Structure formats: C-alpha cells, structure tokens
Amino acid sequence: MRTVQVTRRVDPHVNIDRYDPEAELMLLHFGPQHPSTHGVFRMDLTLDGEIVVKAVPHVGFLHRAVEKLCESLAYVQITPIVDKNDYVAPMTNEQALNMAFEKLLNLEVPRRARWMRSLFAELQRIASHLLWLGTFALDLGGALGGGSTVFIYCFRERELILDLFEEVTGARFHYNTHTIGGNRHDLPAGWSAKVHSALNVIAGRIHEYEEMTLHNKIFVARTKGVGVLDADLALELGVSGPILRASGVDHDLRRDAPFHAYDEVPVRPVTATGGDCFARAQVRLGEIRESIRLVRAMVDNVPVGSINSGKPIKVPVQTKIPPGQAYVAIETPRGELGTYLISDGSQFPYRLKIRPPSLHALSALPYILPGATVSDAVAILGSLDPIMGEVDR
Amino acid sequence: MSGFVHGLSYGAVIVTVLMTVTAFSLWFERKLAARMQSRLGPTLVGPAGILQPIADVLKLLQKEDIVPLKADAVLFNLAPPVAVVCAIGVAAAVPFSPTVVAADLDVGVLYVLAIGAVTVLPVFTAGWASNNKLALLGGMRAVAQSVSYEVPLVLAALVPVILAGSMRIGAIVQFQSDHHWFVAWPFFLGIPAFVIFVLAMLAEANRIPFDIPEAESELVAGVTTEYTGMKFALFYMAEYVHTLVASAVASALFLGGWDGGPFRPGLHWMVLKTLFLFAGLYWIRWTLLRFRSDQLMRLCWRYLVPSSIALVATAGVWVVFVG
Q1: Which chain A residue has its CA at the smallest distance from B138's CA?
Q2: What are the pLDDT digits (tens) for B286-322?
Q3: Which residue of A36, A145, A221 is in closest CB contact with B286?
Q4: What is residue B139's three-state secondary structure?
Q5: Domains annotated on chain A, with CATH
Q6: Do β-strands A324-332 and A42-48 pair in parallel, antiparallel, or remain unpaired?
Q7: pTM greater than the 0.90 cutoff
Q8: Interchain CB distance below 8 Å, B209 and A146
C-alpha cells in the first residue's frame, strides 16, 4: 500500500471577491429539490456563465440521528436501523455493524456464515453498481431519453438479484438478515441454481451495458477528462472504493485486510487510470464482472455447518458487550464503510460511529468541480455514487 | 374558390389533423419507448392505452395555474401560446399533396425557415420572464443553440432549392417527382444535406441528443421549470408539433413529398414519409445520451457549418455544369 504524501493542495475556497470584477457571477442553489442530486444533496454553485467557479457542498437534509438513536437500542435492534443507511446496498451496513459487535465480544463466526456474508456482499455489489450505472446514465441522458433506457435495463437485471435475496431473507431490500455471531436465514434448497441462472443473464448482458456506455461516443465525450481526481488528493481526503481505484490506487480492503471469506477466495481488485468519470465507470463495470466471478466461485462451495455461533443470542435483547472499543471496516460497493463502537458494558452501545464512504467522496467536490460546466457538475456528482442515507445518517 | 377561403379551410383542416396526430404521437412514442425498454407503456386508458393522451390533457387542465410572484406575468403568460403558434405556423406552407396545402408560397422555404427560427423567441422569453436561474440558464442555452444551428439548417435547405431552382416547396416536390428524389440523385448532395437538415432540425426543436435547454437532469426542467398545468403542456405541444412539421418539411425537400416512386402519387405518401421520419426521431431520442452545450457548439461550427457550405457550393457547380 502506498503512503500518503501530500504534494499539492488545491484551494477550493476561491476568494470570489477577487475572482474577476467584470464577470457577472451567479449563485445557483443546486438541490436539495433537484432531480439529479441523488436524494437531498445541495451544492451552492457560483457560476461564471455556465462554468463553475466555486462549489460549496451542503449535507444534512436526510439526517435522521441514526447514531444517537442506536445509543438507546439493544444491540440486536440496531441492525434493522442501520439497514437504511446505505439504502442501495443495505446488507453491507449490517455486516460492518455486526462485525464490530463480534469483535468486542470476541466471537468466532462460523465458516458457513462468513462465506454467506461474502456471497451476499458480492451480490449486493452487483446490484449496487447496476443501480449506479442506471442513475449515472440518467444524469447524462435525462429521464426522457436514452438515459432512461439504460436505467430500466439496469433495473431489470437488479431485479433478479433482489429476487434471490427475497428468497433467502423474505425481504427485497431491508433484510435484517445478519445478527451478532452469524446470519438469521439459511440458504434455501436449490438456491445456488437460481443464482447461477440469474448470473448467466447478467453476465450475458453486461457487454450490452458496455456498448451503451463505455463504447458510446457521447458517453465518452461526456465523461473522459471530466472531474479528474488525482490519487494524492483522493488519499488525503479519505476517498475510498471504486473512486480511489479509478484514480490508480490499488487499494481494496477485501484483499488488503480480508474479512468474511475473502482470505479463502482471493479478490482481484479492478483499477483504472485517469481518475475521471470515465475511469470510475470502467472500474464499476469491471467490478460487476469480478463480482460475478467471485459469486460463481463461492456459491457452490459454501461450507456446511451452523450459520450462527448461537452463544449470546439466548435472550437477544439483553445481549451485553464487554467494555472496550472496536473499529471494523469493510469494502462496500462505495468504499470503506467503518463502524466504530464504544461499549461501557451495558446492553446499549455507549457510542456508535459510522464512517460512510460517500461522505468522503462528496468532500472531493469543492476540489474537482471548479472549471467544470453545470452539465459536468451533474456528471461528476453522479460518478461519485453518493448515497445520502449514509452521508447524513 | 378564392385564395383566402382556400387557405382558411385547408389551414383549419391541417391544424386539426396536426394537433390530433401530435396527441396520438405521444401515445405512439410512449408505446415505442416502452417496447425499447422492455416495458408495456400505457395500457389502462382505452384499448392498449390509446386514450392516454386525452387523460394526460385532462389532468393537466385541472392543475393549478401558478405564476411566480416575481415573474414578469405578461411575458410569462405570452410565451407558451406564441411557441405553439410559431410551430403550427410553419405547417401553413407545407404541401401535403398538390392540392392539400394552406398556402404554397413563392418563398415557401424561406417562410418555413423564418417561422421555425422564431420558435426560439418564446423559449427565451419564458426563460427570462420566469425569473428563475435554472430557467435563465435554459433560455441562454436555447438561444445559443438555435442561433448556431440555424446556419446549417438554412444552408442544408438551400441545396434542394438550388437543385430544383425554386423556393416554392410545391415546385421542389414536383421537380423531384419529375426527376429523382434528392436523396436518390444526386445522392452525394442529397444524403449529406438531408442528414445535416435532420440534425439541425433536432437541435432547433430541442430534442435529444440536443435537448440541452431542457436538460431535466441538469436544469430541473430548463425554461419550463416554473410553468404548471396547461402552459407547461403547451411548450411540449410546441416541441412535438415543431418536430412533426419539420419532419414534413424534410420529407418534402429531400424525400420527394407526395411522390410515390413507381406508385401513384398522393397525400398518403407524404403522411407516411413524415410519420416514418418522426418515428425515426423517437428512436434517436430513446437511444442516445445528451451532449454538453460546448460539444454541441463544436459539432455545429466545426463540422456542420463548413460541410453545409461545401454542399451548397457543390450544388451550384452541379446545377451549372450537369443539371
């Protein structure tokens, strides 16, 4: 892994008074009621014509005090709450959370449960990246045009994965399937055959998405060289996941700090150079292929055994965690999702801090937006794949 | 029948048919887009959802009509009807058959292009009068785009004018009927001019991939951001009518209008060609992503304008030495 060396720092806070007295600058409140701010994100864009001179991101419109709420909930009750943080890959929230509990409890998760967690995480990655591709095309092409065609194709395939999850957990979206020490729901009989047929459909169509995006001249013209985030700045800002890998940093927690079953199923991280919107699309499409490979390798080889260590779950609400601190980070589709837990020995967490990857991705906006046009700003924001649920929590 | 009565009666018929076709082309577009996207589209209102446009209009009529407090109310209310009038006005000079034409003007091509160019005025008025920054940006883009694309549009339309030796659209169609359709011969002039004309026409009607003034993923709804109900619908109606009429103009100028090749000429050929072209534009719309405005300008000034100038020059040489 490379060390962080700050070579230069862009000053995002241009003094507007000194910018150009002749230019008639316009302050545009971009969001929170805007179709392509991915929820309720808001940027204050200072525009010179159509060129962004200064961008000030504002978050907090979706703040639900999740972390504070968690302090008054028993440990097993927290899982369904954090499900709603990253609402595009909900299962990854549960995983990071329960791994923190398990770490403080010193609880060994059965091998079968770990494999299932990996399997679910990779399926979530495919679903999440498909949704990203669809919404990114919407940002570029509009809801009444070619963008929505890509969007609906992506949703069609994402639906297959949601069906798989529904069969396991009974829920299509907010699963509440991970718990302290393992999983709640075992894999139903005949599930792996369905996974294979769903993956065959997706793998057969992924070249279509590449044709529609990476090989589409308009797509390339709209994304190449747009929103370049260089590796040093990305590392300094704590940006992680596909955005960091698109800037050429080969960093993936699944390989560098293996969790779940990733020590047994090696991951080949996808990287790209360029650090622009196009590179981010390349990385995410590559990761769909890589995840398909991983799921295919795992789904038939899930070890038999218990899916839950079963120790502290006798009277779940009264589960107590010994005093101490633990930080657990996993690689979600958006990057490093961390959970920092402080326990005082009671049945409620003393403090639970969630480190969302999207928040750090958004912190790059003031650096990479100046110089772009309003159209580019939409593309850049979309390429960062922000999920406001986990940014604001 | 005096010219005035002729123009009035045929004009009324053409406008009525045009508006009906526009309404049902909405249904057609939604069905086509749905099929392209593996959906069903409207199914509930009437058989196969064919009455959906009527339901849409009824819904829009019931909407509250909001004029923003700080908007310029006069201009704000004036813009939508002007947009529709400009779009329909173009239809007056388009001959659908040797007899079905409201007014076959001597300067038909000039009239069509001029009225078509005026459609940018209500769009910009709307953007300015809304007193909304997003609408203003949309209006700004609309002016830049329409003024730029006016140049290749006019130059491409000049090619059939030069080849046929007349500005009367009826005469241009008759010339093609007597000789060849311009896309067939001389195809090296006809096909590029046709392509440039269709591209510039898409840009003028603000259709994808050139719908930058509306750009709903960037500018919310562009110039129509502050409009509600029927006024909002009027802008869309103008856009559709403009596209439909422009398809008719392109069919007349390049595809031989009412001429049916080896078959008997007639009104149906013109209608078929227009709808065929119109459906092709839907296809483009639901396939492509959107350009950025500076890329659009580059495409226009760097490629379309020089090549259309070259086409016009070649057409002149062709007429003098060959035709």
Answers
A1: A50
A2: 888 888 888 888 888 888 899 999 988 888 888 888 7
A3: A145
A4: helix
A5: 66-392 (1.10.645.10)
A6: unpaired
A7: no
A8: yes
